[in-house]
Each structure stands twice: as C-alpha cells, then as structure tokens.
Amino acid sequence: MGNLFGKEKPLKEVLRENKRMINRAVRELDRERASLEKEEKRLVIDIKKFAKAGQNKTVKIMAKDLVRTRQHIAKFIEMRSHLQGTALKLQTVKSHQAMADAMMNTAKALTKMNKAVDAPGITKMMAEFERENAKNELMQEVLGEAIDGALEQEGDEDEQEAIVGQVLDEIGIGFDNEVPDAPIGAPTKTSVEQEEKVPETADPAVTELEARLNNLKR
Fold first, then answer.
1. Which of 130, 142, 6, 26 is nearest to 85 (CA)?
2. Measured over all CA atoms, what is the biggest interatomic distance in the chain, rounded to whole angstroms?
3. pLDDT above 70 as % of the chain
4. How far separated are the first and last CA of the chain, in Å rounded?
5. Which string of DSSP letters, residue by residue, matches the chain?
6. Which of 125-129, 183-187, 213-217 has the lowest mean pLDDT?
7. What are the pLDDT digits (tens) for 61-82?
8. What pLDDT digit, counting tens, does each position of 80-125 carry?
9. Per-residue model confidence (pLDDT) at position 189
10. Who's near 69: CB < 8 A, 6+ residues apart?
C-alpha cells in the first residue's frame, strides 16, 4: 500500500518489507518457544522432586502447568510453520515478478530491434543482389564463349589428326591394320574351334596406343 502523500512503493520493495517482517516474527517465536522448553524441563524436574517427597497435590498442579506449557510450545511450532509457508508464497510472488520484469524487458528490446531492422530494405537488397548475380553469371558465360571462339583457329582438327597419325606411325600400326572387318554370316565350326584354342592376350602396342590417345584427348 503506497503512501498517501508520496509515491507508491514498487512491488519489489513491498515484498522485501513483508519478508523482513515475517523473518522477525519467526525469530520472536523461536525465542518464546525456547523459553517455554526451558520452563518445561524445569517443571519436569520439579514434578519428579515433589513426587519423591510425596507432595501429590503440588505434583498435580505442576502437571497441569506442564500440559499447558507443552500446548503452547505446539502452538508456537504451528505458527512458525504458517509463517514459513507465507514466506515461501512471498518468495514465489517475487520470482514471478522477476520473470515478468525479464519478459517485459525482452519484449522492449525486441520491439526496438524490430524497429531498427528495415525488412523492406533487406528484401529489396536481396532481390537486387540476385539480379546482379544473374547478370554476372550471364556475362561470364558470354565472355567465355567469345574467348573460346577467338582462340580457336581453323585447321586445329586437321593438326590433331596429323598428330594422332604420327603417333600411330611411330609405333608401326594403324587403325586399318589393327581393326579388321568382321566376317559376314555365321561362324563355322572350324573357326570357332580355332578361336577357342587361341588364348586372348592384350597387345602391348594397342594398350600403349590407347593410353597416348587418351592423353591427347585431355
């Protein structure tokens, strides 16, 4: 509850004051309970002493006092438990208030950040980037084709075929000699038997030729 002529206290300050009052009340209850426990011990000692002396009337009176003292001790324990429960509730309220303040501050920060970020500007910038990137790729493709066309000269294919023929002449073979025409018609039994008898072996010259041709193609 705020002051009549002053500024209203914040919830955090109110919770702190209430918690301080509860702690003060708990300490006062603990002192009273400790005093009653001492009184209980004294009554027990006196009751035993008077009982040994045979003073039964005094023992009964002191027994009533002992019962009332123990009842008050139990009440103090119960009151202390209620106060501790109240303190826990205040702590829960304080935690909720702290969480609410944190969420409020986060919401304010997000609002400022959203205001600072220019979403339409970012979208426009991304669209412009995509457009310029597409232009750049198209330009590179056109330049590449133009450079390839400028560097390519007539007669390059003839020169490549001449180099291949020179390589074949160096190893002493040619395509016409190495690749005979296939026979027309079904193979005879004699030719099949001869083919089965002759083992298939890889010609080293052909292997070297294929390797050199692959190198030329690269």
1. 26
2. 146
3. 70
4. 91
5. ---SSSPPPPHHHHHHHHHHHHHHHHHHHHHHHHHHHHHHHHHHHHHHHHHHHT-HHHHHHHHHHHHHHHHHHHHHHHHHHHHHHHHHHHHHHHHHHHHHHHHHHHHHHHHHHHHHS-HHHHHHHHHHHHHHHHHHHHHHHHHHHHHHHHH--TTHHHHHHHHHHHHHHHHT--HHHHSPPPPSSPPPHHHHHHHHHSPP---HHHHHHHHHHHHHH-
6. 183-187
7. 889 999 999 999 999 999 999 9
8. 999 988 888 888 888 888 888 889 889 888 888 878 777 788 888 8
9. 47
10. 36, 39, 40, 43
Q: In this structure, what token pair is assigned to residue 131?
A: 């457009």
Alpha carbon 70 to chain centroid distance?
59
Among residues 174, 176, 155, 164, the alpha carbon closest in space to that of 213 is found at 164
CB contact at 8 A, 213 and 164: yes
Q: Residue type for 36, please? A: L
